[in-house]
Amino acid sequence: MKRFVVLVAVLVTVNGLSDELINEFKEKVQTIGMQCAEQESATDEDIQALIKHEAPVTHGGKCTIFCTMEKLNIIKSDGTIGEGDVEWLNKAKEDDSDFYEKLQSVHESCKETVEIAPDKCDTAFNLAKCAKEAGKKAGIDVGEA
């Protein structure tokens, strides 16, 4: 459970961002993700799946994604799509404007295509899948586990 990485973090794994900015985000996601995994009673299997960028096994695993995204303002408490961690995004924009534009493209694409499900944990899971797929299409190295 030491390397817990939520699917949204795959979009910042490499690309043109500075190591400092990448590490800042990874550390933030890892800390929040571990808190959320405990809060949502994610199983070890869920955590291993998330580390491998695969679908979590239980509903608690999907809710771990929701909890993490909510704390990063990627998704709102009602399940609608948020604007993301604006402070970090502004740093990313300064660091690599091309990468920032790709992130914005992914955000807009997923905001338009991901339907808000009755269960906000399902919405978060679908958003994570969309971000991974749209990231690949946008030329973002999403990294495979």
Key descriptive features of the protein:
single chain, 145 residues, mainly alpha, Recoverin, domain 1, globular, disordered N terminus, General odorant-binding protein 28a
Question: Explain this structure to me?
Answer:
- With about 140 residues, the protein is mostly helical.
- The protein has a single domain (about 5-135), classed as Pheromone/general odorant binding protein domain (Recoverin, domain 1, Orthogonal Bundle).
- It contains six helices and no strands.
- It has helices at about 20-40, 45-50, 60-70, 85-95, 95-115, 120-135.
- Keywords: Signal.
- This is General odorant-binding protein 28a.
- GO terms for molecular function: odorant binding.
- InterPro entries: PBP/GOBP, PBP_GOBP_sf.
Q: Give the helix level as a range of percent.
A: 55-70%
Q: Please indicate the count of domains.
A: 1
CATH hierarchy class name: Mainly Alpha
In CATH, what is the homologous superfamily?
Pheromone/general odorant binding protein domain
Q: Strand percentage, roughly? A: under 5%
Radius of gyration, whole Å: 14 Å
Q: Roughly how many Å apart are the termini?
A: 14 Å
Sketch the topology as an H/E string, one letter per element: HHHHHH
What CATH architecture label applies?
Orthogonal Bundle
Number of helical elements: 6
Most strands sheet: none
Mean pLDDT rating: 83
Low-pLDDT segments: 1-10
Shape: globular
Question: What's the count of strands?
Answer: 0
